[in-house]
Each structure stands twice: as structure tokens, then as C-alpha cells.
Amino acid sequence: MTTSLILNVIGPDRPGLVNAIADRATAAGANWLESRLANLAGQFAGIVHLQVPDEHTEALTQALHALQTHGLQISVTPAQSAAADPGARALQLDLVGQDHPGIVKEISHVLFTRGISIDELATECVEGSMSGGTLFRATARLHVPASVSTDALREVLESLADDLMVDVELDSPPGA
């Protein structure tokens, strides 16, 4: 049997951090299934999904926690199976507009109140080539319950986009 583990990792960025985690995972016979890792404001931050033989779970956890002496904080959490949601579908939300506080809060609130889960969210601020200001960009992969109409969701998001002065697109994700 195997155990799925989720690692949350953060620490000052430097070469070799991914290698240090991968070395310990491989030594425990773990399989690296998926990850999202990034340098955010000088900090190495990420989340990793590993699958490890049950008998090596504790040894791997201890080996990963030993990396804390190198300034890397790692929390290890057993993964939970997601409940099946028949009829749910994936949608992709793309947003771009002048950066200002509150964009993520307002969009996430609309999604939350409709029971929509954000499976993945990527955001960034970039310099606008035409406007000269800072643009905020977001891409989210959404898990939308069958009870929520795509057209109704698009309508409420477009109304909110007008209030926030951003452009919003809601479509099926690429490859779907």
C-alpha cells in the first residue's frame, strides 16, 4: 500500500532546494506526482504531492523535517481523497486589468457564494505596455457544480468585471 503526502515548502531561495527534497523522496521510494514551485519575492515556495510506500512514510517525513536546519520549512500532510461530484465541470477564468487591491477578494467571493471551488489559481502583476500602469493578471481553473449555469456565472462575473474595471473570460479549459 502507498500513502499520498502533500508537502508545503517555504524558505529563502537558493540553488539545490528541489534537489534536496527529491533526494529524500527518492531515498524513501516515493514517487513525485505533481508540484507547483516558485520563487516569490525571494522565497522558494511550493506544494508537492508525493506517493510513498506506507512503511517509508515516517522515515520520509523525518528526512524532510531535517531540512529545516537549512532554513527550509516543510509541513507534511496526508492527502485526502476528494468526493466525487457527478455533473461538475471544469471552467477556466482569465482576468486582466489595472492592478488594485480587492480583485481576488471580489472574484473569489462570487465563486464561493455559488459553491465553486478554485482548483488552481495563478496571478501576476506586470507592467502594462500601452497603459504605463501595472496590470493584474489571473488564471483560475474552477470546479463548478452542476447546479451552477455557465451562462449565469458568466453574467455575474461580467457585471463584477465592469465594477472592478477588469476584463474577464470564462471558457472550458484548454484540452477539455
UniProtKB/TrEMBL annotation:
Cite a single GO BP annotation.
regulation of DNA-templated transcription
Offer one Pfam family short name for this entry: ACT_6
Cite the ACT domain residue spans from the record: 92-173
Q: In its UniProt entry, what is this protein called?
A: Glycine cleavage system protein R
